[in-house]
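Take our chain:
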Amino acid sequence: MNFKLAILPVVALCTGCMENTMSGTGANSSGGTASGTISQRSDGNYALVVTVDGGVCSAVYSDPTPRGTELQPLVCSRGQGGNATVMYDSNGEPRSATYGGIDIGSGTVIF
């Protein structure tokens, strides 16, 4: 699959993103490093993009609850799969994302 075509769904998730964007990095269980970015979209939802082992995975979160968590499946550019849980702080802002799945390893990105 052409990488440019595979990344289009990831870019589409962030359509209408606002300036409220946070980024971070964290160790991956496979021995590498993962990076992540979460952006608040104009509809109030958050778009998460995590880069792991050369692949890009994404998910949309729609329930930012103060001190809450939200689990969503990841859509990945190279056919990998998994889930990611976003943890929200006392103001309902994302503070971290913990991910795991087949061919992406696992880890936590702190924003």
Q: What stands out?
A: The first strand starts at residue 17 and ends at 27.
